[in-house]
Design a protein that fits this description.
heterodimer; A: mainly beta; 5-stranded antiparallel beta sheet; 55% strand; globular; B: 7-stranded mixed beta sheet; 4-stranded antiparallel beta sheet
Amino acid sequence: RKEVEQDPGPFNVPEGATVAFNCTYSNSASQSFFWYRQDCRKEPKLLMSVYSSGNEDGRFTAQLNRASQYISLLIRDSKLSDSATYLCVVNTLLYSGGGADGLTFGKGTHLIIQP
Amino acid sequence: ETGVTQSPTHLIKTRGQQVTLRCSSQSGHNTVSWYQQALGQGPQFIFQYYREEENGRGNFPPRFSGLQFPNYSSELNVNALELDDSALYLCASSFRGAYEQYFGPGTRLTVT
């Protein structure tokens, strides 16, 4: 089983629509969770952290379900500029006692917003 | 922008050669992590440096090595290059204890 699994898409969505992405992770010891956005041939950029209580940043809402090991991202009123690959990311301490924390990425979900 | 810089932007090497990639971390950050991103894949964790020492490594062979300098900048060295090493190499800086990592623009390495 892959550590972080996402539907690769592509998701073709009309401008103004609401779109939701999900991902699952396998390591129950994972500490923190993120969504990154990556444009073609560019570096990943932190979109938002994901908390158990759920969090919202403008048109973006993220949810975490630790019991089901499931993370979601909701984009409302989608814009053409939202077209990108969305990477689900999990941060797991590699060693106890404050050791390295490497990010584990899903393969990404490709979103295309159509005019 | 994150303030993380990497050099060079692009690089073409021949199989068997060695390469050094460089990264300057964001001001105030003391930890640097390196990732390899093959085409169509998510980034894969190579290793992390803190206090000039490697303190965690992903599933990469020893021919991938690195350094961190007192100013927190870092190098990634790859020996005996293979065709499969062709990828985007990303460095990410962070502050120890904070989970968010911020990426530089990457170095695109092509091995022929």
